[in-house]
Amino acid sequence: MANRGRKRELGADLFEVNPETKEAQCNICKTINKSRRNFSYKRHYLNFHRKEAIELGLINEEDAIGPEPKVKKMKVRMDQATYEKSVVDLVSVHGLSLRTLNSPAMRCLMNPYEEALNIPAINSVSVKPMLSDIAGEVKSKIIREVTGKFICLKLDIATRLDRDMLGINIQFMKRKKQVVRTLGIIQLKQRHTAKVIKEEVMRVLQNYGIDLESIYSITTDNGSNMLLTSELIEVDLDELLEELHEESCSESGDEDGDEKPQRVDDEDFDRTDELRNIFSAVRCAAHTAQLAVLDTLKETNMRKHISAIKAFVKYLRKMPYKNLLKSDNINKPVLSCDTRWNSAYAMAKSLQDNKQYIANMTKNDKVCHLSESEWDFIEAFVHGFKPMAVLTNALQAEQLTLSDFYILWFRCKLALKKQNDTMSLKLLQNMEKREPSLLNNKAVLAAAYVDQRINYKQSPIFDDDQRAAALRHLKLVLRRISLRKGTDQPQGVPRSSQSVNSDEDPLEEFLVDHENSFEQTQSGSTLEKLENLSLKPRLKLTENQNIIEYESRKWARIKKCGSLFQ
């Protein structure tokens, strides 16, 4: 029987096969290919080594895209590090898919660089270790940045392409600026319970070496699962502090004498109480404002008007009106999103801005038109909700502080009160119902206390009870800063570690006593300056104020208070 033609074995020509691991390695770029099928080898060479594929006969020269055109050589400045970083940025920063790196067009751009630099081809496989290395460098940078600092933790959940993602950010001060770092974007594959969210958060924090004692505040929306997550983290902090207290008690119990162990226990008890009281859960101000708006829309039965306007806008965004608007250089009306109230405001505003044109264009359309009463509603809605729209946009500022939010909130309330129409007053009423959870937060009060735009003598927006609560919190924060820096002593108390015995040099004893006395005076001065802030004159409100820079300059000579703004 005649031998039938056998398939050509490509493995030996194109790949080196490891008999133990049963993996094939490309002879040119050393890429590992787990498949040992001929079509897999051929596909790899066609995608990454087209010239060699033609030479080996894997593709007919007629099928190739003609002869290689003569191209003019040019000199460019490029090194390997810059080239690799640029490719990584395309994928990680600009969202280029990994598969695009394998496309013929991208290979046409990348191959000349890789040949000139004499480096292996960067493709969808080889770029992955590079991404891991860059991620490790970013992680190490974040770990260095947050060492010894208090951080503000921020959590949010979003759904994109049917995937539920948990975003975990931290915010801290660096060189007199607020810095935001993303610790992780985690896909949630279980129900969004507080327990599941807390476990993911704790895992990420542990991965970055961030302990619970470093968390100054945690900011979430008003969802019940998020609020419960904050409570669970606070419970974990309480348990940790209790363990520290018990360990300290057991250590002090081994020491001789009755008086000294009791003093150590008291100090540890104070420290535990301080740590527990520093942590605070802050609700998202933008989300709280949105809830106040939704309350107003529900109570005033405005939803039906907004639904009618939305249906009208959908009609305008289709043919033939879409082309008519485009031909006259008029932007299409904005379509609102149900989960973003300010998009409803933007939709109404876009209609109001072009009312005359749109009304004339649709006046003879029996299906797509708005009645005069609906146009009146649009005008009233835009006027009544404008202060809230301004507030919502302002709350998205990158360098927004808690005291900035405090001012913006009161400014919105005053604007609504001044307008004195039905919508504005109803919205104002709902803001005041929602605001206690924001304005009575100890972290917010502490930020407002050190801001002379808010806290000054006879301030109408900052009362004595708020001052007292803020001052207590600030004292605990300053105490905790001292403990984290290793001072381990409250302000105004001389350090016992610098005491000298009577056998030492009398001059040394005199100098140490003087140093302790001076430090005690300086600490007392720090507290006095904090307590006397309410007696200072009001700082005038101006546009584009940078309150962090102002406060850091003001407290520069007071090291412990100044550390609040570093």
From TrEMBL:
PANTHER family named among the record's database cross-references: ZINC FINGER BED DOMAIN-CONTAINING PROTEIN 39, ZINC FINGER BED DOMAIN-CONTAINING PROTEIN 4
Organism: Culex quinquefasciatus
Alphabetical keyword list: Metal-binding, Nucleus, Zinc, Zinc-finger
UniProt GO MF annotations: zinc ion binding
InterPro entries found in the cross-reference section: RNaseH-like_sf, ZnF_BED_domain_contain
This protein's GO CC annotations: nucleus
Designated gene of the protein: 6039747
Protein name in the entry: Uncharacterized protein
Region (Disordered): 248-267
Record localization: Nucleus
